[in-house]
Design brief:
This protein is an alpha/beta fold. The protein folds into two domains: 2-164, no CATH class; 171-493, Alpha-Beta Barrel (TIM Barrel). It is built from twelve helices and 21 strands. The chain has helices at residues 82-100, 110-127, 132-167, 187-193, 206-209, 219-230, 259-277, 300-317, 344-353, 379-387, 431-446, 481-493; strands at residues 2-5, 7-8, 11-12, 22-25, 30-31, 33-38, 41-46, 52-60, 64-69, 80-81, 176-179, 199-203, 235-238, 281-288, 322-327, 360-366, 396-402, 408-409, 417-418, 424-425, 451-456. Strands 11-12-13-14-15-16-17-21 form an eight-stranded parallel barrel, surrounded by five helices. A five-stranded antiparallel β-sheet has the order 5-4-8-9-20. It starts with a strand and ends in a 13-residue tail after the last helix.
Length: 506
């Protein structure tokens, strides 16, 4: 059995946060396992043979609380020391990325390389300690330094390549976007949109459009399309097909065991929407997240057939539009709980290899809630996972990114508020932390030459959002610090440009 000894304040820990914990194999694919904690030991019982690593929510001094991975380890009777293996895992990944990023002997990295060396020396001291408790304490220091320097190195790399891309004019015209909810556009919303974004994403979800079979509700979507078209703001539609429960109309469950019928109904829905709005919408998320969320439990071949059908239909009806295959939960931890799903990179690779007719991949980052795919990751991990999509040979759109600006309410009478329980970044979430996170994330994403667009998920706070308080505006449309930060970024990239400027004709 694979096990890890957890220590706190010089003795065995009395608790471990196993929310979201999972095992990951040598191929970086999540593994099914039973993970428990007892007597200061984390026990990991798995079926697949071979080395594996533990990924769990861990608080790092000075960096925040987020999911971290150990190195890949073989099973043994004696428990591994958790902090040592977490530190070893980060330092190993860091060494690999220094080479991948071409930062070996790069001018300006000398102080960072020295800090990495110091973290490695701390790890060696931990391995030489006289007791497991002492080793854990030193390992914790090594981990803290390794995590902090990896984020600093990530920021250094992003700044260099962001400025290089900026200097060469390498940014597309429709670069920075934001999604809106279907409520009627208010004057306040219009005011905040105008001049703030290169494009706007409107929801084209099946549940909203066809709440009852053959009964269509076009008015909310028509209102947004009319408004944006009048203001010459480019429009993106998302997501034409998604098999999340919140996106599927209730009446469709009548056919949940009849794939052929659902496929035909999905075909009609996609064709209907694209026919109606194709002359106004330039970009479509043709299918989103079916590799991770599949309420009808379709098999692999059926999911790929739906992907191929939706993409081909969009390209047929609106050949000039950009068709995106959208992915969620990019680390694929959901696969450890449900192996009827598909690991994200496997699904993406199959979409390419099987000849699906689409233009770009989409990728979503939502952090804050205690939900698979939404546990917080640090910027080193974010940058690394974006890099992993470069080898697929398709442009990448960040189709939805969102973190909270504060705490969320609870119905527990003993407390009125509690922190987002899926982790934190540097400190508990507040408006300033959200703004700082946005600035760093956008610089990292836009430093990658294959990333063509980034869209924030949610113009304003909305009760239907998975990430509470995740909007750029309050529920009353007052701008948050993150909105101002994004406006500053856009202004620096588009001096004097207004929303919709340079929009191609339908």
């Amino acid at each position: 059995m694979l096990s890890f000894a957890a220590y706190k304040n010089g003795g065995p820990a009395d608790r471990a946060n196993l929310s979201g914990a999972y095992l990951v194999g040598s191929d970086d694919v999540a593994l099914r396992a039973e993970i428990t904690f007892k007597g200061g030991i984390i026990h990991c019982k798995k079926r697949p043979p071979g080395p594996s690593g533990l990924c769990l929510l861990y608080e790092v001094d000075g960096a925040g609380e987020f999911l971290l991975e150990t190195v890949r380890l073989m099973e043994r009777e004696k428990p591994y020391v958790l902090t040592i293996e977490l530190a070893r895992g980060r330092l190993l990944r860091l060494s690999q990325k220094i080479e991948d990023w071409g930062l070996v002997d790069y001018e300006g990295t000398e102080p960072l390389i020295e800090r990495i060396r110091e973290a490695k020396e701390l790890l060696i001291k931990a391995l030489q300690a006289n007791s497991a408790a002492e080793a854990a304490a030193i390992g914790d220091k090594a981990l803290s330094e390794a995590v902090r320097v990896s984020e600093d190195l990530t920021q250094f790399h992003a700044e260099v390549f962001f400025e290089r891309r900026k200097a060469t004019g390498g940014f597309p015209r429709q670069l920075l976007g934001c999604s809106v909810d279907l409520e009627k556009p208010t004057d306040e919303a219009q005011k905040r949109i105008t001049g703030a974004f290169d494009y706007i994403t409107v929801p084209t979800t099946w549940r909203d459009i066809e709440p009852s079979e053959q009964t269509f509700n076009w008015k909310p979507l028509d209102a947004w399309v009319e408004l944006l078209n009048k203001q010459r703001i480019p429009i993106k539609g998302s997501a034409l097909l998604s098999f999340r429960e919140t996106n599927i109309p209730d009446w469709l469950y009548i056919w949940e065991h009849d794939f052929d019928t659902i496929r035909d109904l999905a075909f009609d829905h996609v064709r209907r929407v694209v026919n109606r709005y194709g002359q106004y919408v330039q970009i479509w998320d043709v299918i989103s997240g079916i590799h991770a969320t599949n309420c009808f439990t379709f098999n692999f071949e059926q999911l790929m057939e739906l992907t191929r059908m939706a993409a081909a239909l969009v390209k047929q009806v609106a050949p000039r539009s950009i068709a995106i295959v959208d992915l969620v939960a990019p680390w694929g931890e959901y696969y450890a709980r449900n192996q009827r799903t598909i690991p994200p990179l496997l699904y993406a690779d199959m979409a390419v290899q099987s000849g699906v007719n689409f233009d770009a991949f989409g990728l979503q980052f939502h952090f804050g809630p205690s939900v698979d795919g939404m546990f917080v990751r640090d910027m080193f991990q974010v940058s690394s996972i974006i890099d992993s999509f470069a080898k697929l040979g398709k442009p990448l759109h960040i189709t939805g990114v969102q973190v909270p600006s504060g705490v969320k309410a609870t119905t527990d009478a003993s407390q009125t508020k509690r922190p987002m329980d899926g982790g934190s970044w540097h400190r508990p979430w507040d408006e300033q932390t959200q703004a700082e996170w946005l600035e760093e994330f956008y610089q990292i994403a836009l430093s990658k030459p294959f990333v063509e667009a980034v869209s924030w998920h949610g113009l304003a706070d909305h009760k239907g959002h998975a990430v509470a308080h995740g909007g750029l505006l309050s529920s009353g449309f007052a701008p948050k610090a993150a909105y101002e930060k994004l406006a500053e970024l856009r202004s620096s990239l588009r001096p004097g440009k207004k929303a919709g400027e340079g929009r191609p004709s339908p």
